[in-house]
Amino acid sequence: MPIVEQQLCIPAQARDLEGFRVWARSDDFPETGRIDYLAGDIEVDMSPEDLYTHGAVKVAIAAELHALITKRDLGVVFVDRARISSPQAELSVEPDILVMLWRTLQEGRVREIPSAGERPDRFIELEGAADLVVEIVSDGSVGKDLRRLPPKYAAAGVPELWIVDARDGELQFEIRVLESGAYRELPKDSGGWMVSPLLGRRVRLDRRRNPIGRWGYRLEHRT
């Protein structure tokens, strides 16, 4: 049986933001892995997703956010492969989760980029600042998620950033809000609750063992 090794070839045009975005919208862009552009640096993570410290966390948070946002018809929630770019921040990324409110789109703070052929209702990218971004730390993304991405999201104007790290013994869940161009981490009360400005609710992330001994997660919220 022949074995074909896939190699990632980054074109020369991708060295600047606009060239990277053109590549990301093309048929030559890889269908797997996560490839982000941060002010001239192209960060590639082709490693598989950990099931219980990344995948399960993402699904739990996205499911609850989707229910909260769509129940009140406030906007839309995207998971994986939803690219958002910010020319002012020199940023083009595919966050683990992003939330875009309808009012943000209506006010022109985010615009939808049509897919090739400009077919009706077909879009491949967002440009601007999402209302909420969630990043879940993996072994291959520690430096990017904790150090390099937050200042870029701040420069793009993302008002609320959630960071989750479920890899070690203690679950880490942070909410950061944008103030004067930089993020401030919100304090937790004695029960681990924080107030999300976007949701207008107190939230916390709960983790406990499931029936087979693996970690399960639930995003809890209350008014």
Q: Can you give keywords for this protein?
A:
15 strands; alpha+beta; tt1808, chain A; 223 residues; 6-stranded mixed sheet
Low-confidence stretches: none
Choose one word for the global shape: globular
> Largest sheet, if any?
6 strands, mixed
How many whole angstroms does the radius of gyration measure? 18 Å
Query: What is the domain tally?
Result: 1
Helix content: 10-25%
CATH topology-level fold name:
tt1808, chain A
Please provide the count of β strands.
15
CATH architecture call: Alpha-Beta Complex
Structural class computed from helices and strand pairing:
alpha+beta
Tell me the strand percentage band. 35-45%
- Output the helix-strand order: HEEHEEEEHEEEHEEEEEE
Would you kindly provide a written description of the structure presented here, covering whatever features stand out?
The strands form three sheets. Strands 2-1-5-4-8-7 form a six-stranded mixed beta sheet, sandwiched between helices. A six-stranded mixed beta sheet has the order 3-6-9-10-11-12, with helices on both faces. By secondary structure, the protein is of the alpha+beta class. It has one domain (49-222): tt1808, chain A (Alpha-Beta Complex), CATH 3.90.1570.20. The chain has helices at 17-24, 51-71, 102-106, 142-156; strands at residues 34-38, 41-45, 75-79, 83-86, 91-93, 97-101, 110-114, 123-128, 132-136, 160-165, 172-179, 182-185, 194-196, 201-209, 215-222. 22% of the residues lie in helices and 36% in strands. It starts with 16 loop residues before the first helix and ends with a strand.
